[in-house]
Design a protein that fits this description.
The complex is a heterodimer of chains A (197) and B (148). Helices cover 18% and strands 26% of the residues of chain A. With 197 residues, chain A is α+β, with helices and mostly antiparallel strands. Chain A folds into two domains: 1-36; 37-183, Umud Fragment, subunit A, CATH 2.10.109. In chain A, strands 1, 2, 3, 4, 7, 8, 9 and 10 form an eight-stranded antiparallel sheet that branches. The longest helix of chain A has 21 residues, at 16-36. By secondary structure, chain B is mainly beta. Chain B has two helices and ten strands; from the N terminus they run H-E-E-E-E-E-E-E-H-E-E-E. Chains A and B meet through helix 2 and strand 8 of A and helix 1 of B. Chain B: Its main location: mitochondrion.
């Protein structure tokens, strides 16, 4: 069976049309997989240290993460690591931990007394939104700076570290400590004033 | 074949049906089909006045069509014209300001504020259904002219 596949592949080089078609299907397969099923991405930056890429700021070594990408806005839970389009730069993807989900109330905490990051003392996460923070709160640009983000910005959920070999394992949904205090709420979270008017 | 179609729909063009009164009179309340060009996804090459298909801010599986009335750095009127205190706000980095053409029946940036460009799925470039209204949809916004 493998021989037939190999000889077919080699044979297809002699037929430009068939070769182009097979290449197109192959590329489409990879693109569709990356779009809908899973994608492997390196983690740069130190905002998720020590959970991800703990040595990035010293040696520059990166963890490679397998992201699950099937309907990423579904079943997002506190503690999961998600990738999302950053709200301030539409071409940049970032990874953070989900701290609170819709309906929860967050009491953001400043990095140091007097250095205000978030303009409100407490905030309830709206419907269809999540509150995300980096594990390394001293060096993280997250919801404390830009507020809750829409689930529509979420592109995937981090599932496994697959490289380097000695750090292989599951990530997310463990016990975690957040810098901000979260008051868990039930329900679906609110809509802006006037939504039903 | 299905794979190629998938990639085409996600990265090139798609056709979608529209529903809702928020874009009257540009689009009917029901039963119109429009072509969406995905080249403009995440706000690339988008200009003020363009019609965009966006991911719903509160229901990620839903989509909506709105008009872009402000890009990052622009100053826009926060409330409905003629209502509110006439406050102008600046659209932040990476965001745009959305409005429905039918202001009295549209949920847009007047309610939820600046909208992330990253949630733009594409630009509405043509209408295909109904056939009587078949044609390209151009950005009709023009620069101000000095009239004597």
């Amino acid at each position: 069976m493998p021989w037939r596949l190999i000889s077919k592949t080699i044979g297809s080089f002699r037929h430009p049309g068939r070769f182009a078609w097979n290449t197109a299907v192959g590329v489409a397969l990879v693109v569709a997989c990356n779009d809908y099923l899973f994608e492997v991405q390196p983690i740069t930056g130190q905002s998720m240290s020590p959970t991800l890429s703990p040595d990035f700021h010293t040696t520059g070594s990166k963890d490679w993460i397998l992201f699950s990408k099937w309907k990423p806005w579904k079943n997002v839970e506190r503690g999961q690591l998600v990738s999302y389009w950053t709200p301030h730069d539409p071409e940049k993807i970032s990874v953070k931990r989900v701290i609170a989900v819709a309906g929860d109330t967050v009491v953001p905490k400043d990095r140091a007394p007097g250095q205000q990051r978030f303009p409100f003392a407490r905030v309830t996460v709206p419907h269809g939104h999540i509150w995300i923070e980096g594990d390394n709160w001293r060096n993280s640009k997250d919801s404390n700076d830009f507020g809750a983000i829409s689930l529509g910005l979420v592109t995937g959920k981090a599932a496994y570290i697959i490289k380097p070999w000695d750090r292989i394992g599951r990530v997310g949904s463990d016990e975690f400590k957040s810098r901000s205090t979260v008051i868990r709420g039930g329900g679906i979270g609110g809509f802006p004033a006037g939504w039903d008017g | 074949m299905a794979l190629l179609l998938h990639v085409f729909i996600r990265h090139a063009y798609t056709i979608k049906g529209t529903r809702g009164a928020s874009m009257l009179p540009t689009m009917a309340t029901d039963g119109e089909g429009v072509v969406i060009n995905k080249k403009y996804r995440r706000g690339r090459y988008i200009e003020v006045g363009d019609l965009v298909s966006v991911r719903h801010l509160f229901e990620p599986e839903e989509a909506a069509i709105k008009r872009v009335v402000g890009m990052p750095g622009d100053f826009v009127l926060r409330d409905t014209p003629g209502k509110g205190e006439g406050l102008m706000v600046q659209v932040p980095e990476g965001h745009c300001w959305l409005a429905g053409d039918n202001q009295s029946a549209s949920r847009d940036s007047r309610l939820f504020g600046p909208f992330p460009l990253a949630m733009i799925k594409g630009k509405v470039v043509a209408r295909v259904v109904p056939l009587s209204a078949f044609g390209r949809m151009e950005n009709t916004l023009k620069d101000a002219e000095v009239l004597d």
